[in-house]
Amino acid sequence: MNLTDPTLFCDRAWLGGEWIAASGAAIDVTDPADGRVIARVPSLDGGAIERAIAAADAARADWAARPAKERGALLRKWHDLILANADDLARILTAEQGKPLAEAKGEIVANAAYLEWFAEEAKRVYGEVIPAPAADRRVIVLKQPVGVCAAITPWNFPNGMITRKAGPALAAGCPIIVKPASQTPLSALALAVLADRAGIPGGVFQVVTGKASMIGGIFCKSPKLAKISFTGSTEVGRWLIRESAEGIKKLSLELGGNAPFLVFEDADLDAAVEGAMIAKFRNSGQTCVCANRIYVHESIAEEFARRLGRAADALRVGRGDQPGTEQGPLIDMAAVEKIEAHLQDALDRGARLVAGGGRHALGGTWFQPTVLSGVSPDALLAREETFAPLAAIIPFRSEAEAIDMANASEFGLAAYFYSRDLARVFRVAERLESGMVGINTGLIANEAAPFGGVKQSGLGREGSRHGIEEYVEMKYLCMAGL
Ligand code: ADP
């Protein structure tokens, strides 16, 4: 790999201020574009994970005691180093994940912004003085860091999901141990190189690699660990709740979605097509906020399908590291099999193919950007997240029917809709059962906004001033006899 700073390509875990090379058990990291092994990182044993927790615990008091301004300054420095090295970080990300370089850099820059945001918020974790119900008393509320935290992060945003979690944790005064997805540990380790360079103490930010269920299990059971922040599947989220029940661990969970995307008859159709392209095909459809069910008013459904099909056909599919690529490969063959199953199921129920429809001529895990129209509301993809480049258009007759179909899901992460009628905009936005609603846009995440879901899409929020609250506890001081 051609990097300006080759030291960012790191295949060792970062534990208590030491780099741990693979000895014995290791995990192969492959390039999803060709299956080539690009690195081997350690598969740490349980003892190493316990050492990481002990190192974080040892670093906890000093980190919490530092002035917020000082923690913020270190976060800001880390942020600046990430931006200065964004091109190299993007090359590492694309090599292990497959997304186009421009998208990789976009992920890195947009999510480094969470470090900048929380570097600033660190100074604003205000307590309260509350008027007491008795004259001789005062009610005072302190906000204190929750303690040692762990982050378990997914492969679809190997860089951004780490800065989103480490930013608020470190700002609040909590050390954090990151367990990246085994498919994509290199972005996490590159971030560790830069955190170290920024001066963040070794016990305060650590990256451990290895078997997910073993590491997750230790995190859940460790009495020294106060909180786990997880982004991934609903199934693993449930497992973490069960495993950590004994110790009443705090959890922030950003789980699966099955985002509805509604296009009303009064929408600006070109804008809706553009928004649907971003909401559906970004990262080859592999994001938890990707539009999975596109409900379009029956009077415009065919025209919308035609335009979306044309835009999907025009997407340049190829290797992420080649200039001009707009869609890279899928992460693995299981992802290809899932889109094939969802596609076949929709076709069996009478859907019509408008664009794509199968594996791409490039082979491997490449799939054609695919558009279906006339999809049945009962199709499998209306219930399950496809996580792949399949845009399914389901026609609707009335606003009420569209909202009912959109809400008929156990998930509630993101929803999108297009309308130019102000009354409808408020009506629909208020009725949609989701944590986030994109109105006349297909792109909603940013550091200033609370990102998260309702229903089985998770617990807690990332970003905004609310994001840091996930990492602090309230302590009520009852001052009596005054
Ligand atoms: P995805 O379908 O996106 O891979 P997963 O929930 O399987 O979603 O993975 C998200 C993250 O959770 C990854 O870091 C993965 O290694 C980790 N993970 C998977 N299974 C477990 C588990 N049993 N305990 C803890 N972490 C897990």
Automatic annotation (TrEMBL):
Q: Does the keyword Oxidoreductase apply?
A: yes
Q: Which keywords fit this entry according to its UniProt record? A: Oxidoreductase
The segment(s) forming the Aldehyde dehydrogenase domain are: 19-476
Q: Give the active-site positions.
A: 254
Which GO terms of the molecular function aspect are on file? succinate-semialdehyde dehydrogenase (NAD+) activity
Classification via SUPFAM superfamilies: ALDH-like
The alphabetized list of GO BP terms reads: gamma-aminobutyric acid catabolic process
Q: Which NCBIfam families match?
A: SSADH (TIGR01780)
Q: Which PANTHER family match?
A: SUCCINATE-SEMIALDEHYDE DEHYDROGENASE, MITOCHONDRIAL
The entry's protein name is NAD-dependent succinate-semialdehyde dehydrogenase
